[in-house]
Amino acid sequence: MREINFDGIIGPSHNYSGLSLGNVASASNKGLVSHPRAAALQGVAKMRHNLRLGLAQGILLPHRRPDRAWLGELGTDVGTVPPSLRAAAFSASAMWAANAATVSPAPDCTDGCCHLTVANLRTMAHRSHEWPETLAQLRLAFADETRFAVHPPVPATFGDEGAANHMRLCASHDAPGIEVFVYGQRGGAYPVRQHEEASRAVARLHGLDPEHTLFACQSEAAIAAGAFHNDVVAVANENVLFTHEQAFEDRPSLYAALKRRIPEIEIVEVPASAVSLEDAIRSYLFNAQLVTLPTGGMALIVPDEVRETPTVWAWLEAQVAGNGPIRRIFVVDVRQSMANGGGPACLRLRVVAEPECIDPRFLVDEAKLDRIAGVIAQHWPEAMAPDQLREPAIWTQMERARAALYEEIGLRELI
């Protein structure tokens, strides 16, 4: 068993419509011209970079956009859709695969299967209609029912935003672990997206041992500052928790509970006196991929914006120079995703499993990435302003681009 990162390929409808309340980058860049082709190629380059580090890599694919079926349920269609719904019907937000599902590896589950529960994403209209296609992809990718259990979303009574609010700590990826579900109670002016009852329902569906499952409240200060998901202020990998001082409402209790269960845990806490919440969120320091390298040691894969934020970069350089568990820093360019509010960690869903048990069409090597990049270069729009979403020629281009990618991957049954 090993950890596999499934990255969402950025879709041809990638645009800056500012749909995500509480997401500072999304709101700040509303109305700007996006570059879908460059965005998708940046995502491919990140996957290629991680493959070259020796990490396992998978993909999840763009959803149908415009979402004609969703518009039909609302009594309209792509030609007559009111402005209040248009952008939501075109959103490429499924690219942020960290919100696709919550994943509990087999060693943690009582039935010995890896469990995945698709997120309902009900808080935001533009994301609330992602789950049917996500469910279809995951049920195909993880079709072996002797190894995997893929669950539909929990009822939309309670908002669930997936792995972006879930952490796992363990001695090694293939060993039993402690699963930490992070929920919100208050967010100042911003909505709370992860509900405690949704988190508890997922834990029950996955058959987790209550003694090895923790529920922690995200701090109101973090949400109010723009940390709409926990993965904007904390990330875990094996026995390391990398977190901002202000990530959790009651961090002493959480830390104590973790230390009781995992004596070898290392908590790397960044003090607010060194890096403010605002700088952490602006740079997406914690929305990084914290990974174990095949050669040993841990590395942090961060966006360019981390290097460009002086307080953050100074803290990281001091950390790597010391004796902490994070030994290397790799910088990747995901500026198009960052401008819409998603960093390296947002773009991937972590699954611990045996690669041979997964549908190979969802796994990639460099040759497959070359093919994917070729489709993107040929079919993805070069640039797009939000008002172009009204143009029928753009609708046709988006739909043909998606179909071309699915054909190339061999997933015709999902077109």
C-alpha Rg (nearest Å): 20 Å
Low-pLDDT residue spans: none
Q: Quickly count the domains.
A: 1
CATH fold type: L-arginine/glycine Amidinotransferase, Chain A
Secondary structure tally, helices: 15
Straight-line distance between termini: 31 Å
Instruction: Please tally the β strands and state the result.
Output: 15
The largest β sheet comes out as: 3 strands, mixed
What is the mean predicted local confidence, pLDDT? 97
The amount of helix comes to 25-40%
Query: What is the CATH class designation?
Result: Alpha Beta
CATH architecture: 5-stranded Propeller
For this structure, the quaternary state is: single chain
Order of helices and strands: EHHEHHEEHHEEEHEHEEHEHEEHHEHEHH
Strand order of the largest sheet: 2-1-15
- In CATH, the homologous superfamily goes by the name Succinylarginine dihydrolase
Strand portion? 15-25%
- Mass-distribution shape: globular
SSE class: alpha/beta
Overview of this protein structure:
The protein has 15 helices and 15 strands. With 415 residues, it is an alpha/beta fold. It has a single domain (2-414), classed as L-arginine/glycine Amidinotransferase, Chain A, CATH 3.75.10. The strands form 5 sheets. Strands 2-1-15 form a 3-stranded mixed sheet, sandwiched between helices. A hairpin with a 5-residue loop joins strand 12 and strand 13. Helix 2 packs antiparallel against helix 14 (366-379).
